[in-house]
UniProtKB/TrEMBL annotation:
It comes from the Bacteria. Keywords: Thiamine pyrophosphate. The keyword Ribonucleoprotein does not apply. The keyword Secreted does not apply. This is Thiamine pyrophosphate enzyme TPP-binding domain-containing protein. It comes from Microbacterium suwonense. InterPro entries: AHAS_TPP (IPR039368), THDP-binding (IPR029061), TPP-bd_CS (IPR000399), TPP_enz (IPR045229), TPP_enzyme_TPP-bd (IPR011766). Belongs to the TPP enzyme family. Its cofactor is thiamine diphosphate. Transmembrane segments: none annotated. Residues 74-229 form the Thiamine pyrophosphate enzyme TPP-binding domain. Pfam families: TPP_enzyme_C (PF02775).
Length: 264
């Protein structure tokens, strides 16, 4: 018993002494994990519509920026790809609302991270749907000198819901196709929107433009940067667990694909 300021220090010292030399043997567990990685390697198919691969965009953001950055993501397909294709190597570098499904999380979370650690690069990896829920906070960023980087993975749709409609509802895309990136009219035009807020705004539509845009963002620290990456709406997140079934059922389905398709 005592003052919490003193007791916590004593408790930390006692705890470290108690666990010294008692680290668990994790060799078998790591062997199991390495086997899963070998059996289910990370990868993606190139889009057939000529648009950018979202997985490639996110992977390059991680590779060019490095592990010392902080990455925040919203909710949806971009959330899953950001979890998969960025190689996190240190604690507190991945900010996400997980299964809470809080669309609009990315920009405010990135703002908080940049204020807390101003010397780190902070990326908000967002979808075109999520971004429209909190993009007004770019004004807060500009006014208060919070130079975050925002990567909009713009598939002109509510991608995760659209994926479910494609797979399980015979492609009946009800209220999931947007007009943010594809076609001649963009509603809204994210480049014009970002410029109106005083940000550096870039649109990327070709693969050979991806690296240069990311580098430009990394070199800019006097204002927020918004990059509108126009990606394919047909890219999907894998693996995927359908609603109402377990992970073990998905493994069963993998071994009995025709029966699984019929049941779905």
């Amino acid at each position: 018993m005592g003052d919490v300021r003193d007791v916590l220090v004593d408790l930390d010292t006692a705890f470290r002494g108690a666990i010294a030399g008692s680290e668990p043997d994790t060799e078998e567990w790591w062997s199991y994990l390495d086997g899963l990685k070998s059996e289910f390697p990370l990868g993606f198919a190139q889009p057939s519509d000529g648009l950018l691969s979202p997985q490639h965009v996110i992977q390059r953001i991680g590779e060019l920026t490095g592990p010392e950055a902080v990455y925040a993501a919203g909710v949806g397909q971009h959330q899953m790809w950001a979890a998969q294709f960025i190689k996190y190597e240190r604690p507190n570098s991945w900010l996400n609302s997980g299964g809470a499904g809080t669309m609009g999380y990315s920009v405010p979370a990135a703002m908080g991270a940049k204020v807390a650690e101003p010397d780190r690069v902070v990326w908000a990896i967002d979808g075109d749907g999520c971004f429209q829920m909190t993009n007004q906070e770019l004004a807060t960023c500009v006014i208060n000198n919070i130079p975050i980087k925002v990567a909009i993975i713009n598939n002109s749709s509510l991608g995760m819901v659209r994926q479910w409609q494609t797979l399980f509802y015979d492609g009946r895309h009800s209220n999931t196709d947007l007009n943010t990136g594809h076609g001649t009219v963009r509603i809204p035009d994210f480049v014009k929107l970002a410029e109106a807020y005083g940000c550096l705004a870039i649109r990327v539509e070709r693969e050979d433009e991806v690296d240069a845009a990311i580098q430009k963002a990394l070199e800019t620290d006097d204002r927020p940067v918004v990059i509108d990456f126009v990606v394919s709406a047909d890219a999907m997140v894998w693996p995927m667990v359908p609603q109402g079934v377990s992970n073990s059922y998905v493994q069963y389905a993998r071994d009995h694909a025709p029966a699984f398709d019929q049941e779905i």
